[in-house]
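Supplementary Methods S3. Complex input for the magnesium ion-bound model.
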Amino acid sequence: MLENKDQQRTSLGDLGEFGLIDHLTKHFDITHQSTIKGIGDDAAVLAFPDEQIVVTTDLLVEGVHFDLSYMPLKHLGYKAVMVNLSDVYAMNASASQITVSIAVSNRFPLEALEDLYLGIQTACKNYKIDLIGGDTTSSNVGLVISITAIGHVSAQNVTSRSNAKPNDLLVVTGDLGGAYMGLQILEREKEVFKVNPNSQPDLEQYSYIVERQLKPEARKDIVALFASLEIFPTAMIDISDGLSSEILHICKNSMVGCNLYEEKIPLDPQVISTCEEFDIDSTTIALSGGEDYELLFTISQDDYSKIKANPNFTVIGHMTQQSEGAHLITRANTKIPIVARGWNALQSED
Ligand code: ADP
Ligand code: MG
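Predicted complex, serialized as structure tokens:
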């Protein structure tokens, strides 16, 4: 978790750009037939007969999206890949290739980039992804990492945000709020460490939520599950910004409203206990926390029997006519409009 001052430091300048790229990427294997040409030419070449291509990019900037004082570079590499794969899976597509671009200052030794690429490589192995290219440049300040993920899906299986219908069920995978509460724990430990650098944090009781923050997993398994259960979500989005803003994206793009039931929102016991410790409302955290990388989707009520016994899925509400708006139905049975960040408790309608 904390910087080891004794570790070996090889200056990036010693290798040169080509030596560096070769050094970082030589242990990556190409496994997909669709990768005709990977790293080493002017551009990669891919072939996807009969399928549509899904492309998505994310840009992560040190100090804005990550803090290296508690985010080990290996985890950052892994998470940077997950963030992108999650977007591919949210289209109901298979992810198959990534490109990785980095801007790095001379503050980072080669060993730091090796750690970053070890995380990227682990993600590529676990999710069967080919690294097919990227770009490498210097930066004056911190680390910038941009990943582009490429996937494929047959035209009839693409799930957009725009086809949810009134009366469709609103369903979420996994549980919510963990990544945000994990971040709160890591921020708190960082402050403790500043005061007492010899303190050894005991994060055992927070292990699940800290892992949700540092090592999220994209829900590749859910795309496979949809195929085996023959479920076609009417709309789908991944939860990167928090439940409320993702619900509003589906509502807006599909021109529907929504009733979300507070009591149905899935929360891990560690999220509940950590929210109590920080004296914050767990529903607010689930609605606004972000970075959970679960999938939020809508299905026709006719498909309910396919998901009802499955522990991966929780029905948290249903879609309505657009004119009814998007609301949270609280445990006290009050109806509160959902806003992009949490909900507006001052505008209770009843
Ligand atoms: P060009 O000058 O044509 O942009 P580069 O020298 O930047 O080529 O890259 C050479 C090869 O290495 C290309 O295949 C490129 O995609 C790949 N590459 C460059 N940087 C990275 C990186 N950070 N990670 C993975 N592949 C990279
Ligand atoms: Mg280049």
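The pocket of magnesium ion (ligand 2) is lined by residues 135 (CB under 6 Å). The mean pLDDT is 93.
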